[in-house]
Amino acid sequence: MPHTVVIFGASGDLTSRKLIPALYLLHQKGRLPKETRVVGVARTPFSHDAWRAELETSTKKFTGKEFDATAWQTFASTIFYQRGDIDDAASFTALKSFLETDIEKGAPASRLYYLSTSPTLYEAAIEQLGAAGMAEESQGVRRIIIEKPFGTNLASAKALNIATHKVFSEKQVYRIDHYLGKETVQNLLVLRFANTIFEPIWNRNYIDHVQITVAEEVEVGSRGGYYDKSGVLRDMFQNHILQLLMITAMEAPVRYQADFIRDEKVKVLRAIRPLSGADFANCTIRGQYAGYREAKDVPPDSNVATFAALKLQVDNWRWNRVPFYLRSGKAMSCRTTQIVIQFKEPPQLLFGDGPRSNLDANKLVIQIQPAEGIQIHFLTKVPDAGMKLRMTDLNFSFSREYVGKSLPDAYQRLLLDALNGDASLFARSDEVELAWGIIDPILAAWQSPAAPPLEFYPPGQWGPDLSDQWMHEQKRSWFDVC
Ligand code: BG6
């Protein structure tokens, strides 16, 4: 059956920077289902050709060396534009008739709606799709991708789920988190569940703690207006970082199928011990980089956190007493996303000179980006130096192993999965609500008089100094490697 992808918010940045380049590259690789058409919808008036011309320029820019003029021409002939306003019911009637008559020519077709508008329009768009009869499936499946953020707290996420379920059943809904589309995040599932050597030691008996770091070198730039309402907890923790935590901590699903995977992920969120009372001071750190308050659209007295570190416990058999340290920030030393599995020290230390610290125990470092790979750190004997030991590593790197093969952008995989009806790498309604249930109390505590102080840090370091001191007090230290 032919497919129609309908992008709401077609004149926005996400469409030109991510969605169209991803669809174009899928087309170029011959991966898009046969007869896939793309229809952009936004308020700006465009002719089909004017929109195509704009997208050609942006796609060239964002796909770089991969751009091929001939492949673009064939792809461009499958993209169309329809002016429309989310608040206007007549726009949806017109869109429906344009899709049925001009695009699908009266024949059945699968449809994938993509909400890439401002999140404040999600509910209205869903309601209009319902009112126009565009969610019902007599002429082919109807799926909808909803971009992040899915709500701004638990109450709004619940309201959005309710509004969505009035029109679409859960199996039609694809809540996107682009971290799940990253090759290295999927490879974490492969590392854990396609190998036998890691699983026996992937638990409280061998692991001291887990660190998940998502550090960004960039500052907020022109996104101050959005960021100041969001802050790092909403922007990075509720979604991307908790996704990484779930995949690191989950049990093996019975099969690689959407609901089996999501069932296991949800169990992890349920097992996370809610923070309360003194935990907010003891287990959370909030920071802001110096200069944030001068950014465009940021109030000069903003107390929004651009950095956070959290210590969470997953109360289940596998992870009892194994803390998960999570941290993320803007304006940090470098861009890196990594998961560090810090193993315990051996029970008795026979070799080496002087006292050892936890730093010397084995580590498994999963580099999600940008130097995608996996390293195992272990002690070896320095030759001809008595029994002196040194930490060395086994180092797997995607770029060395798969020479000349660049890692595709996350949106390619996710768009293709949604077109094919595979929701394995999308968040389910209970998952987003549970995630907000973890973040909301921290946000509330940070607004209260008992909030831990906002720590300032100069751009270009690993967050506030307190973050390092806090780890040292717990006889641990962050793995700060770019
Ligand atoms: C987005 C956040 O979801 O993820 C941004 O809104 C952040 O603030 C981005 O920069 C990070 O994504 P990536 O793929 O560059 O790590």
Automatic annotation (TrEMBL):
Bilayer-crossing regions: none
Pathway as given in its UniProt record: Carbohydrate degradation; pentose phosphate pathway; D-ribulose 5-phosphate from D-glucose 6-phosphate (oxidative stage): step 1/3
SUPFAM superfamilies to which the protein is assigned, alphabetical: Glyceraldehyde-3-phosphate dehydrogenase-like, C-terminal domain, NAD(P)-binding Rossmann-fold domains
EC number: 1.1.1.49
Domain Glucose-6-phosphate dehydrogenase NAD-binding: 6-187
Recorded catalytic activity of this chain's protein: D-glucose 6-phosphate + NADP(+) = 6-phospho-D-glucono-1,5-lactone + NADPH + H(+)
Domain Glucose-6-phosphate dehydrogenase C-terminal: 189-478
Superkingdom of this protein's organism: Bacteria
Top-rank EC class of the record's enzyme: oxidoreductase
Active-site residue numbers: H240
UniProt xrefs under InterPro entries: G6P_DH (IPR001282), G6P_DH_AS (IPR019796), G6P_DH_C (IPR022675), G6P_DH_NAD-bd (IPR022674), NAD(P)-bd_dom_sf (IPR036291)
Keywords from the named record: Carbohydrate metabolism, Glucose metabolism, NADP, Oxidoreductase
Binding residues for substrate: H178, K182, E216, D235, K330
GO biological process entries: glucose metabolic process; pentose-phosphate shunt, oxidative branch
GO molecular function, one term: glucose-6-phosphate dehydrogenase activity
Cellular component annotations (GO), alphabetically ordered: cytosol
Pfam hit, one: G6PD_N
Residues noted as binding NADP(+) in the record, renumbered to the chain: R43, D85, I86, K148
Family that this chain belongs to: Belongs to the glucose-6-phosphate dehydrogenase family.
Its biological purpose: Catalyzes the oxidation of glucose 6-phosphate to 6-phosphogluconolactone.
NCBIfam families assigned: zwf
HAMAP family reported for this sequence: G6PD (MF_00966)
Stated name of the protein: Glucose-6-phosphate 1-dehydrogenase
Record organism: Anatilimnocola aggregata
